[in-house]
Amino acid sequence: MDKLSSATVDSLGDQVGVPEYDRTAVRPGIVHFGVGGFHRAHQAMYLDQLMNSGKALDWGISGVGTMPPDQRMRDVLQAQDGLYTLVIKHPDGTLEPRVIGSIVEYLYAPDDPEAVLARMTDPATRIVSLTITEGGYHVNQTTGDFDPSDPGLQHDLQPGAVPTSAFGLVVEGLARRRAAGVPAYTVMSCDNIPGNGHVAKKMLTSYARLKDAELADWIEREVRFPNSMVDRITPVTADADKAALAERFGIEDGWPVVCEPFTQWVLEDDFGGERPPFEEVGVQLVEDVEPYELMKLRLLNASHQALCYLGYLAGYRYAHEVCQDKLFMDFLLGYMDEEGAPTLPPVPGVDLDQYKHKLIERFANPEVRDTLARLCAESSDRIPKWLLPVVREQLAAGRGIERSVLVVAAWARYAEGSDEQGRPIEVVDRLREKLVERAQHNREDPLVFISDPDLFGNLAGDERFVAAYRSALSSLHERGARATLEARTA
């Protein structure tokens, strides 16, 4: 067995794809915050494809971590010379491994923030990209404005502070480039947020304004923030995945990535300077990302929410298990047909019926083994962005909301902390304490969960929403998820 590294990569055998370019010739051109599974299955993979065609060798990725859990990624990637294995899991059980070489260094900011800032101020860095999760943008869910209350932001806003947060480092990097007369880099968000480029611009500029109003004005003028839509189901890597890679292909990889075959990236062609020729490896460069973005958020992402809480409460633990149950799939397709799709503008070049059935096919891939627990995590950042806009648009148009509201009620029931068999649920959310505390009073006060204006705005004052929510939550308590679905689909 070969421990993955630059010294062993060329001896892995014909079954494993490896970089076909000279990695010593690759130079950093992108600084990326948030090197997790999705980034490594998506953006880093696209750049690796470009490099394999002999292009983009000046667009290597310098990965940056800012949070304590990122130390593990630092250790693994440094031990493996930045290499890792991307394993595509086909529905028939076929594994397709490829070693990705586009990450050329990994910097853990708490170790040496000046090293990160030096890389960001280097004129060779022309893009700073982000997968920092929905919560990493510090958006107040009620007002849509910047929320500076995070302790890391408060630290970075102190005069003379050495930045520790992603926002602090990105803005300090821009400040230093401005002072040195170096052109601004493009900030490219790759997170699942509607208008992610617009959100990144608004939040980063708002943060900068708290430090230096002139700098904020310069960022508004000079920095480009392209919107993007990204898509690839990338479950958490399990020990079994590492074992299969070792047993079947002889690769010892400290943190491989597994993903589905499907991948999509729709990117607004709005860069302040040079960019890689992404279109040559299948990225859709467009003028307006919004139709594609809304399609993905309200059909794929919201559909994940529609299956995960109800499925978990009913006893399932994997997405593909839920998708093998006709009752749940009828409900899911009903949500997409009757509530999600009616809120969408026309999507150029996309047949929505085909897209919806392709989603079901993707969710049902038994080899991906995407856990419902992963899909249920960080709901407070997801439901308000992915599902509640559907509810509001359907309410405004006088159309159906019953399926969407049942999903909200299922979230509230899930947050109570136990499933229908009485087994404990580990609620994973940055607002866990508040959510669980509220949810545990659901039975005596059915509206307590949705009365949080930071998450639900004024929906608790909408009579139609409240009536549907009360009915759904009551049914989940009295009859359970399956019987509730049977009644609703009937």
TrEMBL record:
It is an enzyme of class 1 (oxidoreductase). Its EC number is 1.1.1.17. PROSITE patterns: MANNITOL_DHGENASE (PS00974). Coiled coil: none annotated. Residues 29-278 form the Mannitol dehydrogenase N-terminal domain. Pfam families: Mannitol_dh, Mannitol_dh_C. Residues 288-476 form the Mannitol dehydrogenase C-terminal domain. Gene3D superfamilies: N-(1-d-carboxylethyl)-l-norvaline Dehydrogenase, domain 2, NAD(P)-binding Rossmann-like Domain. It catalyses: D-mannitol 1-phosphate + NAD(+) = beta-D-fructose 6-phosphate + NADH + H(+). Keywords: NAD, Oxidoreductase. Belongs to the mannitol dehydrogenase family. This is Mannitol-1-phosphate 5-dehydrogenase. It comes from Kribbella sancticallisti.
